Amino acid sequence: MFNKDARSILDDALKTRNRCGHPTGYVVGREEIVVFIERLINNIISGATIDWN
Known about the structure:
2 helices; elongated
């Protein structure tokens, strides 16, 4: 259902979530959070990267 661009965005989001969810000492900055949310909204939730065929 999702095209290759969406898959890449979702894979990056999962990697970020995993870095934050495990005790690695990784700290997310405000800018990274904003970019994370904007990418999901603009590309995934809006349906821009969904193959409707």
